[in-house]
Amino acid sequence: MEKSNGLRVILFPLPLQGCINPMFQLAKILLSRGFSITVIHTRFNAPKASSHPLFSFLEIQDGLSEAETRTHDVTLLLTRLNRSCESPFRDCLTKLLQSETEEEKQRISCLIDDSGWIFTQPLAQSLNLPRLVLNTYKVSFFVGHFVLPKLRRERYLLLQAEEFPPLRKKDLLRILGEETEVLDSYSDMILKTTKASSGLVFVSSCEELDEDSLSQARQEFQVPIFAIGPSHSYFPGSSSSLFRPDETCIQWLDKQEDNSVIYVSFGSVVTISESELLEIAWGLRNSGQPFLWVIRVGMVNGTKWVEAIPEELMERLTEKGKIVKWAPQQEVLKHRATGGFLTHNGWNSTVESVCEGVPMICLPSVWDQLLNARFVSDVWMVGLHLEGKIERNEIERVVRRLLLEHEGELVRERMKRLAEKVGRSVKQNGLAYRSLQHLVDYLSSF
Ligand code: UDX
């Protein structure tokens, strides 16, 4: 770790697992480069301060009721949070800046927060504080999704859906069908506030994964853009889980053969129905392959955990498989026994899988996941796509194709090459590594 450079960075993560991990990874990188870190966070999904003794934490009231925090509607949750956090965040930041003038030894360099916070840009501007926007999506998605409101208004364009590769017409119809005016105006605000910011940091992208869209993003936003590559590569295994990972996964994996296990996880937000749960269960069981399956508490609509799986089926499942509530995902993907990842293609999961060279089975649910999945299956060709078919025979078949057949070997070979390419990017003199260096220089210049 470098010695302190006398500068403090304020971080303000969105309280979602997919946003907290990358933000804390960035925090660790900046700390190792001599910056001090203060994290302002909501009460809802508060990070564990005790896991990060070198950071300072300040909690703000988010005004959400218990029932409001349980919603599965992420857009609703984020718009509510933006409304209720504005005033407490302003008070907290103003106090921090005042204490800075009293304590001259450490200067606050800037605020870094998620693109999903739309009130922070005008606030930072009014306080004369540079604000950088952290982005946890794939660059192509971030750039592309701003055309969605227009597309939604001009639905006839759907006839030319082939103009949005690698999305297929059916993906676009799903994306456009999902959301409404609330999301459109939220997206418009994200675009506006990002353009007004002092810079844009992509923590899980690099030239190797996003070459075309990075140049497009530079044109569109006209602010410095940093693509520092898969941030967890700089500090492997350092996840900031909101849930407690079940560490017995690793002992269980130790007992399995190389590349034999299919790891199944749908991230921290996606939910499925009882019948989908049963189809996946039967598919995994019938594939005959060992599997490690994350079923979050509350993931299956209308039930608490796995009650919908009949006892007899559960007995058969546990002969070859293991079901947990939350896994140490990065360690699981790193394990020699893990041969494939049945995933919803959240961007973090996708990148973590790429970094460990684990080929995927794509089962995207919503939003950016549909685009990420197409990159995996159609552009990089490092995974097989289920095409939304949550059906036991399809699942059994795709698991066997990936783990047992020649087709799977070819996919694995291509994934290995992609993993090596991305791995080189975060090493000294790699493109992502150099971008990180530019970011550190930029933050030091404020
Ligand atoms: C959300 C959105 O759903 C996704 O579309 C977007 O790309 C990012 O924000 P989420 O659904 O949680 O994210 O998925 P993902 O991006 O894959 O992030 C999940 C994170 O939780 C990963 O870092 C993963 O390692 C971690 N995880 C997941 C665990 O540590 N253990 C688990 O059991 C499951």
UniProtKB/TrEMBL annotation:
Signal peptide: none annotated. It comes from the Eukaryota. Pfam families: UDPGT. InterPro entries: UDP_glucos_trans (IPR002213). GO terms for molecular function: quercetin 3-O-glucosyltransferase activity; quercetin 7-O-glucosyltransferase activity. Keywords: Glycosyltransferase, Transferase. Belongs to the UDP-glycosyltransferase family. This is Uncharacterized protein.
